[in-house]
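Lecture notes, unit on protein representations.

Consider one protein chain, 98 amino acids long.
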Amino acid sequence: MRFGVSLSISQIGGFVSGKSTKGGIDRGYGISTSTKMLCEGMNGKFFMFSGNSFTYMNATERDITELELPHVYWDGVIICLRIPNKIAPSFNYINYLE
């Protein structure tokens, strides 16, 4: 387990857009695929905060913000998901697999 993890605004942007620190067959699809399925497919919401940056996403918005408050800094990562109670009958998770 790693302690003292914090992400910069460019790293957060890379993670949510599918950029991986790994290459080839060991590359993961977790954050980019999951947020696309959650926000676009299920009409949910995603929030991630780390260091002095956060991102908020829903079906129509994708915002990455860097806080310019020197006293606000989170040494770690917080991820919040809003998963709707009711999902459209047309939703099919297969459409979001890579």
